[in-house]
Design brief:
Elements lengths: L22 H18 L4 H8 L3 H29 L1 H21 L3 H29 L2 H53 L14 H24 L4 H23 L7 H4 L2 H30 L5 H7 L1 H4 L1 H14 L4 H18 L8 H29 L6 H35 L2 H8 L9 H32 L7 H4 L4
Length: about 500
């Protein structure tokens, strides 16, 4: 899960007044809370499914809906913060975030949970976007660099400890209690935000049409991936979503060519190096997110781990995100070609995903320890170098657009990976068990047989899904290599911008 955030106006002049001493701790607390909520919620899925008698796409929307809203609202929240005020949007987003988590904890049905999670995702996007803008507008020079370094570190910490923390909370207070804790922490952030300084952009342009079309297209694709396995690919609702998604994608591409402030400048698409780095971060997200979201259910269902134990096991995947970015950045600073560092990161992600073919119900943690660490290191190394390398290839006048596109691409990839992984796993399970409802229950961790048939089917379906993920990551890595090594890297100066 990517930790960077869209900053809408990084050129804001240095403030005349000293920033509030609460600015950094409040924003960092918000960033950490959002990161933990992203990586930790998957631990709660089996408990939610059992309590609310939910499985299949309704249960998967608990995670997918959050990520969809987060990806879709990132650009909108950043633009709103510039216009309405960064502190105001940050506070409003924290309120929305808390309300969503409280509503989740009190939800009587899975439908209410899904809606509440979408609300929480929108709030999380606002906290990340407005929080980054607050740091950019309150700090300057070295202080700003330190602030954003702390922000990235806190996001990494949140991603790393999220599954472990949520697993512990579930063991102590149940899944509803874990969501209440997040809601209470959100209220604390709201209270602390009242003393922060307000700021706005003197001039802000937003491609609202492009943003809306992006949201529509992404939402339609998510619906297709999550609902088609149960409804059927020829169902009228699925076909309608496919049609709307295709039309939205075409319209989005057309508007980007005519917009004065496009979400994605066509000039960036034509830059092979920039697109190589974008495709690289997309590949690591594909290799990381499916495992992050769906492995906890397997650990609790097939390996019979408690939520707390499953959360500890997930540290093998998430803990490397803390140190790998620093190591990768250090290698590049010492003169190692960043392109080769990225290729090693991609190789680790590919090898780790194929290594998960060893997954089984017996000695599970020992079997998958090395593959999980490899994927985590690869993902973390990508975190450490992608943004800096991609931005170095972009003219200064396009750095804001490029940063927004990178973050939007990551968010969209994460949301779609969750949906596609769910669809593949459910499809293979349905083929093995012969009934989609039975397959949905098994994928949610609700087993009924005692002869191991369901666990065998779940394990085999996992292996087949992982083969697909590993194969896709390998093919994409090949494309990344072709893009990055097709010519000498060009700097901003050579592209017509300032160094």
């Amino acid at each position: 899960m990517e930790s960077s955030t869209t900053v809408s106006d990084v050129s804001t002049p240095a403030p005349l007044k000293t920033p509030s001493p609460l600015t950094l701790p409040v924003v960092l607390t918000g960033v950490g809370l959002v990161a933990m909520s992203i990586s930790g919620t998957a631990i709660a899925l089996p408990s939610i499914g059992r309590d609310l008698d939910a499985s299949g796409s309704p249960l998967n929307w608990v995670v997918a809906g959050y990520n969809l809203a987060f990806a879709a609202m990132t650009l909108v929240a950043g633009a709103a913060a510039d216009r309405a005020g960064r502190r105001r949007i940050f506070i409003a987003a924290a309120v929305v975030f808390s309300v969503g988590f409280l509503a989740t904890a009190l939800a009587p049905t899975i439908l209410v949970v899904d809606i509440a999670r979408i609300v929480s995702g929108a709030g999380g996007a606002g906290m990340m976007a407005a929080g980054g803008a607050l740091l950019a507008s309150n700090y300057d020079g070295a202080a700003r660099n330190r602030a954003f370094a702390f922000m990235g570190t806190m996001a990494g910490v949140g991603i790393a400890v999220g599954p472990t923390l949520v697993g512990g909370l579930i063991s102590l207070a149940g899944w509803r209690g874990s969501f209440v804790v997040f809601a209470v922490l959100g209220v604390v952030i709201v209270l602390g935000s009242g003393r922060l300084a307000e700021s706005r952009a003197s001039e802000s342009r937003t491609d609202w049409i492009g943003s809306i079309l992006f949201v529509i297209t992404l939402s339609c694709l998510m619906f297709v991936f999550l609902e088609a396995p149960a409804l059927g690919w020829t169902h009228s609702a699925v076909l309608l979503a496919l049609t709307l998604g295709a039309v939205g994608l075409i319209a989005f591409a057309m508007t980007q060519r005519r917009s004065e402030a496009p979400v994605l400048a066509p000039e960036l698409i034509h830059h092979r190096g920039f697109m190589g780095w974008c495709l690289g971060t997309l590949t690591t997200s594909i290799g990381f997110l499916g495992v992050l979201v769906f492995l906890p259910t397997y650990l609790q269902t097939a390996a019979h781990l408690t939520p707390a134990s499953a959360g500890l096991a997930m540290l093998l995947l998430t803990a490397p995100v803390l140190f790998a970015p620093v190591l990768a950045g250090g290698l590049v600073n010492r003169g190692v070609d960043a392109r080769w560092v990225m290729m090693v990161a991609l190789a680790l992600v590919v090898a780790g995903n194929f290594g998960l073919l060893a997954l089984g119900p017996d000695n599970t943690t020992a079997l998958i320890a090395a593959p999980l660490v490899m994927i985590g290191i690869g993902m973390g190394a990508s975190f450490g170098i992608t943004d800096g390398q991609a931005m170095s290839l972009v003219p200064t006048r396009l750095v804001g657009t490029a940063a927004g596109f990178l973050n939007t691409l990551r968010g969209a990839a994460e949301a779609l990976v969750i949906a596609a992984f769910s669809a593949a796993l459910l499809g293979f399970l349905t083929h093995r068990l012969g009934d989609v409802d039975h397959a949905a229950a098994v994928s949610a961790g609700r087993l009924s047989f005692v002869d191991g048939v369901e666990i065998d089917a779940l394990t085999t379906s996992w292996h087949l899904t992982q083969m697909g993920v590993g194969g896709i990551c390998f093919l994409l890595s090949t494309a990344v290599a072709a893009l990055l090594f097709s010519g000498s890297p060009r700097t901003r100066r050579e592209e017509g911008g300032n160094p």
